[in-house]
Amino acid sequence: MNPSNGKGPISMASSSASWRVGDGVSDQFPAGLRVLVVDDDPTCLRILEKMLRTCLYEVTKCNRAETALSLLRGNKNGFDIVISDVHMPDMDGFKLLEYIGLEMDLPVIMMSADDGKNVVMKGVTHGACDYLIKPVRIEALKNIWQHVVRKRKNEWKDFEQSGSVEEDRQQKQSDEADYSSSANEGNWKNSKKRKDDEEESEERDDSSTLKKPRVVWSVELHQQFVAAVNQLGIDKAVPKKILELMNVPGLTRENVASHLQKYRLYLRRLSGVSQHPNNLNGSFMNPQEAAFGQLSSLNGLDLQALAAAGQLPAHSLATLQAAGLGRSTPKSSIHMPLVDQRNVFSFENPKLRLGEGQQQHMPSNKQMGLLHGIPTTMEPKQLANLQHTAQSIGNINMQINSQGGQSSQNNSLLMQMAQSQSRGQILGETAGGHVPRLPSTIGQPILTPDIGPNVSARNGIPENIRSTGYNPVSQTSSLLNFPMTPTSELSVNSYPLGNTSGVSSLPSKGSFQQDINSDIKGSVGFMPSFDIFNDLHQHKSQNWELENVGMTFDASRHSNSAQGSLDLAQSVLAHQGFSSGQMTGQNRNAAAIGSTMFSSNNGTEHGNAQNVGPHLNALLIDNQIRVKTETFHDSNPANIFPEHFGQEDLMSALLKQQEGIASAEHEFDFDGYSMDNISV
Amino acid sequence: MSQELQAPGIRHMFSRAYFCLPHAHRNHLQQQVASMRRSLFDQGYLDEQFIQLEELQDDANPDFVEEVVTLFYSDSARLIQSIEQALTSRPINFARLDDYMHQFKGSSSSIGAKKVRTACTPFGEYCSEENAEGCIRAFQQIKQEYATLKRKLETYFQMVK
């Protein structure tokens, strides 16, 4: 063994660092692979560490799952792969697996002395990329790098596919096509999310054979995009022309194509809630579709939120989705949505908003109704996705919120979110943590799977929420996860904290949440709307959908005023045709929330949403929002809104575009809808 | 003789003290160690995993095998105590016992403690059957195997040094 290699963590670090930055494939690869190994057995841990060092990997060991999680969270891009034992005293290995998948989207290898088929199957269904039987031999560890490469490759491929597919598709067709690409995207999203986050800033170049440069759809960029699309007309908007109109140097047709695809999904989702039934039905396809839809919607929302948040990488969304969707179904299905989500996020707020709104629609169809008790695979998955995304988004928010002073946190969180995200998403969240938070939180943070635990931990919301989300089928529970965070906040009441309150409220909402979960799934994107959601929940998530829709619209209207989010909601609502009057400050909040929350009125919304799409939602939301806004209103006085608004504007702009509002639904397939269903 | 020296572990283990001895002594000691090592494998106390550990030992970690085995002792002592406590508590928490069993199985297998690991299986079965009697008996067997192995390994490592 090479002494320098074997014992040079520092040298490894540098080599691994270069490995990471350089698109994942450096000359030394797989040497320098950064492995985190978790096992409560000190003997095994020491042996594994030595073996991994012998393989020239950079090893970090910890004997507790909680420690591992905090290590991972504290340094999101600090590890490439995780190896974890199944039986651990403080946390079940599968639970840790879920969290990691949702939040960081890292490949996780499970190991155990238990080689029973059930346990191994559990590992597979929870998304482990491999399962090792103890005692582990060094030969088994030598090849673990393949999982890292594979994940990245999938991400990249999905990215590619989504881009190329988009062009040829008509809007209608794209739904179908989306599925396939969504699946890819899902995968991609998952892995890419993480990757993207880390690498986004680093390299955009295609120096890496595995990675493609990633375009961040900033708010401004998205606005340009939307403007171009509007100019051309949504039906006539083809990537090439859009690209020309946008006239952004460095932007490729593929970038535009994939973005357009997502956008279309988002719009579709907004208007076409009808998709849900398919999705929800739980046929395998459905989940995918749902997931897809969710993803799309989520993507828009979540991605944006996430993107905005910068925390919830697409992958968290993806993971969420995946978790929701994937638990029961193969990850592939989830991947799709995830990918979308990711992209969506890149839109940042605007998309998010839309997504949220849309999701609301969608989820209601799919999930909401289903969630209540629909354990269809779809639902859980969707929810999961949603939850993921939402959670991720929410996590961001939630974490902040849950962390503690909800209000303070929320605000800070929101602020952060607002800042990091394209404001639009945060609409609800940042606003003051209360209302503003929701939107943003819902959209964004929700995604982080962590939210579940965080949230629950904080607020006391049972972790289940998160975990439920993850349970593939948990049907509502899984959905809940997603909503958990947001709902918890919402339910909590005043919302202001969104998270904190939400979280606490969640428990009460428990039942609610389930619905919400489903909704949330769809609305994952809404995460920010959680804040709103909370309020909404009170009203019964249905408003969610509407709200989202409303929100998005409003977003466009109002520009970054503090009330932005509110305005957005209002504008959206108004746009929708709601009684704008409602959009008063209070309404705004509500509206904002509503938009995110679009999920409101599961049943009704769906129907409405479908027809009217955003309008209906808006209306529905409007009512709900009103109620909500009032609550919010106090809570957040748009502190954070201003920041959000920027995004909101985009969102609303997007919403306006809505022709595809119906399609928005699709996007929200995943949990977003659940939000709606969550008849709070 | 030279064959027995093939094992990397032995070679490494001998690297320090070995060369200080006069040739004849070295041979003798080397023989002894080799033969003891072989018997540990032949009698089923150790299995191939132990060789994995030996192969991990290198100049950077010259006492790796002993270090890991020592970790195993301390961890096992803790586990044994927990199991005993669980067995004497009423009612017996079989789920927890099963957990302990899994831990013990995992750690003993990772150092190649073959007989100890094998003894865990009946213990696990009795746990799932919630057979307290069976558990107690099986646990006695585990403790016995563990004690025997520990004794032998301690002798072995002393020889190796």
- Beta content of chain A: under 5%
Strand pairing plus helix content of chain A: what structural class? mainly alpha
> What is the name of the CATH superfamily of chain B?
HPT domain
Low-confidence stretches of chain B: 1-7
Query: What characteristic shape of chain A results from the CA principal axes?
Result: globular
Mean pLDDT of chain B: 86
Write up this protein:
Chain B: One of its GO terms (cellular component) is nucleus. Chain B: This is Histidine-containing phosphotransfer protein. Chain B: InterPro entries: AHP1-5/YPD1, HPT_dom_sf, Sig_transdc_His_kin_Hpt_dom. Chain B: The modification Phosphohistidine is found at residue 102. The complex is a heterodimer of chains A (680) and B (161). Chain A has 680 residues and is mainly α. Helix content of chain A is 70%, strand content 4%. In chain A, strands 2-1-3-4-5 form a five-stranded parallel beta sheet, sandwiched between helices. Chain A starts with a helix and ends with a helix. With 161 residues, chain B is mainly alpha-helical. Chain B has one domain (11-161): Four Helix Bundle (Hemerythrin (Met), subunit A) (Up-down Bundle), CATH 1.20.120.160. In chain B, 80% of the residues lie in helices and 0% in strands. Chain B has helices at residues 8-18, 23-42, 48-56, 64-88, 94-111, 114-129, 132-160. Chains A and B meet through α3 of A and α3, α4 and α5 of B.
Any chance you could write out the topology, listing elements then pairs?
The complex is a heterodimer of chains A (680) and B (161).
Chain A: H1 3-6, H2 9-21, E1 34-38, H3 42-54, E2 58-62, H4 65-74, E3 81-85, H5 93-104, E4 108-112, H6 117-125, E5 130-133, H7 138-142, H8 145-168, H9 171-202, H10 219-232, H11 239-246, H12 253-271, H13 275-280, H14 285-309, H15 314-328, H16 331-347, H17 349-371, H18 378-403, H19 406-420, H20 423-430, H21 437-443, E6 446-447, H22 451-459, H23 464-470, H24 476-492, H25 499-523, H26 529-539, H27 543-557, H28 564-576, H29 585-597, H30 602-612, H31 614-635, H32 641-657, H33 661-668, H34 672-677
Parallel strand pairs in A: 1-2, 1-3, 3-4, 4-5
Helix pairs in contact in A: 4-5, 5-15, 8-9, 8-12, 9-12, 9-14, 9-15, 9-16, 10-11, 10-32, 11-12, 12-14, 12-16, 12-17, 12-33, 14-15, 14-16, 14-17, 14-18, 14-19, 14-20, 14-21, 14-33, 15-16, 15-18, 16-17, 16-18, 17-18, 17-20, 17-21, 17-25, 17-27, 17-29, 17-30, 17-32, 17-33, 18-19, 18-21, 18-22, 18-23, ...
Chain B: H1 8-18, H2 23-42, H3 48-56, H4 64-88, H5 94-111, H6 114-129, H7 132-160
Helix pairs in contact in B: 2-7, 4-5, 4-7, 5-6, 6-7
